[in-house]
Amino acid sequence: MIIGVGIDTVQLSRFEAKLTETPRLKDRLFLDIETVDASIATLAGRFAAKEAVIKALSGDPGIEWHGIEVGKESSGKPVIWLHGTTAKIALQAGIRKLHVSISHDGDNAVAFVVAEGVES
Amino acid sequence: MRELIIDLDAIAYNLDVMRQRTSGAMVCGVVKANAYGHGMLEVARKLEAAGVDYLGVADVTEALELRRSGIVSPILAWLHDPHEMFVEAVNEGIELGLANEDHLTRVAAAAEITGRLARVHLKVDTGLNRNGASAAEWEGVLRQARGLVAEGFIQVVGIFSHLSSTGEAEDLAQIARFDAAVEQAREFGIKFELRHLTASDGSLNYPQAHYEMVRVGVALYGLSPFTDHHSKEYGLRPAMTATAYVTQVKRVPAGEGVSYGYMHRTKAETTLALIPVGYAEGLPRNASGKASVSIHGKTYSISSRIAMDQFVIDVGDDDVNAGDLVTVFGDPAAGVPSADDLAAAADTINYEIVTRMGGRFKRTFLGQD
User: Fold this and answer.
1) Nearest-CA neighbor of B30 among B265, B18, B92, B209?
2) Quick check: ipTM above 0.85?
3) What are the start-end ranges of the E strands in chain B?
4) Is B333 an interface residue toward A (CB < 8 Å)?
5) In the beta sheet, which residues pair with residue B124?
6) Neighbouring C-alpha atoms within 13 Å toward the C-beta of B316
7) Could you tell me the pTM of the whole model?
8) Which of B91, B110, B115 has its CB closest to that of A91?
């Protein structure tokens, strides 16, 4: 069953400006593995996916940026893995799988997340 | 100062002794309960440096403490809180001993949501009636595990159980039940690398039951798992020595009562020595009147009542002074009372004696790399 959904859009130029303005922001938002060879468009898409995950988890205050890993399967399909406290919060909410789709157009990235699980 | 002197070299030596006695089997060094009171991290680091194959602990909290302190060896934890979510454990690559469908489901969920394969050991109860799937539950556990393997959530690394050490007949019956449970797992098409059944006692008694791995705890600490055989018979060296210093001496006349309840009364004018170790340090109160300690190589009975912080011994006219070293227990080869002696005095087993030592004792490690 569907436990939650989340959607978020990110403006690439504004996101890039923020990252330049606050040099440590990138490390706060992303795991090292998420930033390897990642363009601004990829990072913006991943950030939108993280925001969408937070919305799908109803914004629990225990959620951590580093607790949400946005990666991709060998086919290129985006995938979300959760870690630590964030994974625990999701499991306690009955969530067993997160589905994500990311899209780009012009200066925008958008991500949509569906949280699937069991009734807890 | 009250001191537990932990000889890490003795522990590494005992690992070698047990390796020779379990020829070819992998060794899981069991470091649960603060390494039986010896200091979990220090012991684990020593064992890792000495090439131990696995480290075993009871619960996930102990396992995570080891991993987050830089231990890279495989770690197996097998006794779980009913609310355990297994997320950190799966994330940190802790191997999990599992015995029921509820735990398997939660481990699989943790694997799915973290994107990591969970490595599990399925535990079958072969007669001890503690944790482990009963004969009736085993098939359900195998069926579920097979499904979770197919879905890519778990890998079954091992199948294990634990003996009751009741007697040879009972142990042999458990070994037979273990073999049958393993066979059943094979019939279910479950692939695994390790079978492990025996702890220190079974590993010494049943060479036919070493399988691919043995789990060694008490023997690593140089203690015998049997009350009727001393560790020396197996070439093991006790690793823990408990010491303190005489705090005060007092010359008293004959007929004086000593400590609570006047359990001891002086027979003649004598010297009493006060030693600052009590049941807060883990010295069992019920060993009063039965246990002994050693000063200058001579053994003295703890003839009075052991209190929370201290006990008093009657040293007669011997030249004992404040500041003299007292050995509460240690390696009997050094002529001092052993953990076995203290265990006998307290009507318990050596395992409990070393594991309960704590309180205001400070651990000093010898042989740290």
Assistant:
1) B18
2) no
3) 3-7, 26-30, 54-57, 75-77, 95-98, 118-123, 154-160, 194-196, 213-216, 240-245, 248-252, 257-258, 264-265, 270-275, 292-295, 298-301, 311-316, 325-329, 362-366
4) no
5) B133
6) 6
7) 0.89
8) B110
Smallest Cβ–Cβ distance between A88 and the set B85, B115, B116 belongs to B85
Distance CA B97, CA B100 (A): 10
**What's the half-sphere exposure (Cβ side, CA atoms, 13 Å) at A50?**
24
Q: pLDDT per residue over B347-363, tens digit each?
A: 999 999 999 999 999 99
Q: What is the CA angle A110-A113-A115, rounded to 5?
A: 170
Which residue carries 């027979």 as its tokens? B267
Map tokens 């992303």 to a residue.
Answer: A30
- pLDDT at A17 exceeding the cut of 70: yes
Residue with tokens 């069926």: B143
Query: In A, which residues are within 8 Å of B92 by CB distance?
Result: none
Token pair, residue B157, equals 């690394």
Task: Work out the end-to-end distance of chain B between its first and last CA atoms, rounded to an integer number of angstroms.
Answer: 25
DSSP, residue by residue, A12-73: HHHHHHHHHHSTTHHHHHS-HHHHTT--HHHHHHHHHHHHHHHHHTTT-TT--GGGEEEEE-
**Cβ within 8 Å, pair B113-A82:** yes
Both tokens of A51, joined, read 């925001």
